[in-house]
Amino acid sequence: MNFPYSKKWITVTVAAAVAITAGSVYAADNKTTANTAAATAATTTTETAAASTTAPAAAATTANGAANAAATTAETTAPAADSTQASAEAEPLSLDKAIAQALKTNKTLQSLRIQIDTANTNALLARNSARHISNDAIEDISQAQSKYSSPAQAESTKRVNALSLKNTENTTKATTQQMYYDLLNAQAQVELKKQSLTRSQEQLKVAEAGLKVGTKAKSDVLQAEMGVAQAQAALVSAENTLKTSMMKFNQYIGVDLNKKWVLSPENKQLQPISMSLQEATEKALKQRVEIIQAQEELTLAKLNYDIIAKYGSAVSYAGQKANNDIDAAELGIQEEQDNVKLDVAQAYYNLDAAKQTVEFTLKAKESAAENYRLTNLRFQNGLATTLDVIQAEEELSTQENNYQEALRDYNLAVVSFENSLGVPQTEEEQK
């Protein structure tokens, strides 16, 4: 039996995609400020010259000083104004707001809603056609199926379509959360790379100072320069990843690719799983749309067999085929149940492992930070080489990255586990 939008019927594909631009409105305003200040200075010069013709040089000097000061002020404030303008263009975005936006404008979801509306219309037409067939007019199996099977299939299709839409919306929510956390991680990686660069630059300053007073060798400076260069390259790579991640995120939620956001930190709280694996499995078996769809197939297969047995022959070719459809539907339910059990178990164990990984990587990061601090002190006192410090800094950077990625993985594991449980049905859907 073929019904739209079951596991066999729908394949939900996701594609996902910020080039950040900055405005320069305030630069023009600052230029105007500079011109006004210069004009004011010139006026002051004229008045001074008229009052005292014996000091033209002093008046000219005053005018030039005022104009130069105004110009300097404009140059100093322009970058800050540009930064303010760029920040103003970026909108705040929470995880809940991102999910709402995706449910509204995700193109895959919009297309599915159109397809479901068309399928529901076709099912309604089939049901209305069956109403015009009277019981007395039924003379063969084909007419009986049109009378009884078609309305039942129409109702089943409507229920399955509603479940499929809800399941796809749930998948859209989960994917939006995953991309949101990936974007948060990309932002955090940029900040970590900046911190690493700052440490490398400080190390270079210490090496250069030591070289000047004769306590460090030229090789120490060269090694420190190498560390700075590596940190700069890592920062550029992280910034590029952030830009492309932002564009993919925008593409998925269905907004302008160049849209800029200020994301809110949304880390899940580390806590034990609130239910046992058995409880989670039982909940999923009741809520997962794949099992409900398989059960609908079994119901329709049995109805079709009953119609053939009543208006034809159960031992006929059609009867044997209908009986085989029942067996296949029952096997389909068992297969879906096994798939759900495996999916829930995997998500459950992944979540537990992710929680422990966060705890372990936090300890490793703290140890690496303390090791870097002590190694740096030893270097400043001539007890460690530049290479020792570089290696300690690299290890600290690695552990910081590991911890950040562990946090991201834990957030994603929570999302995956929640998604594996399925979506609760409303009373209307259970009828």
From TrEMBL:
Alphabetical list of InterPro entries matching this protein:
OMP_efflux, TolC-like
Identify the stretch(es) annotated as Disordered: 70-89
Bias (Low complexity) occurs at 70-84
| Localization | Cell outer membrane
What Gene3D superfamilies has UniProt attached to this entry? Outer membrane efflux proteins (OEP) (1.20.1600.10)
Q: Which GO terms describe its cellular component?
A: cell outer membrane; efflux pump complex
Q: Name one Pfam family in it.
A: OEP
Signal peptide, first to last residue: 1-27
Q: Which UniProt keywords apply?
A: Cell outer membrane, Membrane, Signal, Transmembrane, Transmembrane beta strand, Transport
Query: In Gene Ontology terms, what is one molecular function of this protein?
Result: efflux transmembrane transporter activity
Q: Give the record's family classification.
A: Belongs to the outer membrane factor (OMF) (TC 1.B.17) family.
Q: What is this protein called?
A: TolC family protein
Which organism is this protein's natural source? Brevibacillus fulvus
